[in-house]
Amino acid sequence: MEVVTRAIIVYLWSILILRLLGKGLTFQQKPYDFVVMMLIGSASAALIVNRDVPLLNALAALAVLGLMHSILSLSTLNNYLKTIIGGQPDLLIRNGRIVKANLIKNQINLNQLQAALRIKGYRRIHDIEFATLEANGQLSVIPKSQARPITPTDVKLATSYEGIPTPLIMDGKVFHENLKALGLDHIWLENELIKRDLSKPQDVLLALLDTDGSLYIAEQPPINVIKSFFIGEGKDKPSAKNSS
Q1: The pTM of the whole model exceeds 0.85
Q2: pLDDT per residue over 141-163, tens digit each?
Q3: Are strands 204-209 and 166-170 parallel, antiparallel or unpaired?
Q4: Is the N end or the C end of the chain the one with fewer CB atoms within 10 Å?
């Protein structure tokens, strides 16, 4: 009877902790998301049958795991820590060419790469513009414009080059190297922000410059960190200003 009681209590407690950790735990899992789910799952199972561990101690241990994961997740909102803790995406294919260095870095062989591409529905590497191994371990593929489903090639339409939009600002941080690489400067960026009634980069959540020259800007919304952590946005509200 004691085991049944512990099972019910630990199960409900684990569900509560996972609920408080939010949907981000299962959406595009990062390495530390997988670790905390594995630890909570294995610890919960062990605590149910191990009657030598007091129940309150068991519940406290699970709560500490949840708290540590929350602190770690919030710390990755910082761009610098996000790269260190959560990792960063790596290009495996660029302009139809395999980036071998990144294959080695991620311990992926050519057979695995080709299998992953076939699963995505692509049989020819030279049809792929970019293939990126995301930080969560998933492969995202952007095909060349001529090789997309219902392609312009089928109707003999000419196509123009389409690359990846370049981030200029992310969460208030200006990417100086990207500006320089595009032949732009801070004065140009400031003028673009002024056109959209934004006074400084810290007012911008995301700014992307597309290859066709269009500039996408999402305004930084006012955020209550504690409220956002527990309930997200809450009821539907007018979204932050997006412009291009």
Answers
A1: no
A2: 998 877 777 767 777 777 777 77
A3: antiparallel
A4: N
